[in-house]
Design a protein that fits this description.
Elements (H helix, E strand, L loop, with lengths): L1 H89 L2 E2 L2 E2 L13
Antiparallel strand pairs: 1-2
Length: 111
């Protein structure tokens, strides 16, 4: 009878130990599942970030092209203003109409 009692106590102890190990395994499994979900979320965040970086790169390329184009147009405008200044200095042009040209090649004035 004592052997049965010891055997039963051993079985109860083994069952409790097995249940504790099962609980630990289940906690680890749950932790691994949470880690997997976190990694999936992190991967999605990285993909979204990469998409935003790509879009911003395209926007920066467009902005750079616009700045370059604007710089070229402004440079041309400066050159045209310099020429206009020279024409004004020589009297070839006046605000309000062309300068009056005198001499035989001047067009006749309309009255």
């Amino acid at each position: 009878r004592e052997r049965e009692r010891v055997f039963f106590i051993s079985l109860v102890f083994l069952q409790a130990e097995m249940e504790e190990k099962l609980r630990i395994i289940q906690e680890r499994d749950e932790g691994l599942r949470e880690l997997e979900q976190d990694m999936i979320s992190l991967n999605e965040i990285q993909k979204e970030l990469a998409r935003h970086v790509h879009e911003q790169g395209a926007a920066l390329d467009t902005l750079e092209a616009n700045v370059t184009s604007t710089a070229h147009i402004v440079s041309e405008g400066v050159e045209e203003l310099k020429m206009a200044d020279k024409y004004l200095a020589k009297g070839w042009f006046r605000f309000g109409g062309p300068a009056k040209v005198s001499g035989p090649s001047a067009p006749a004035e309309k009255k």
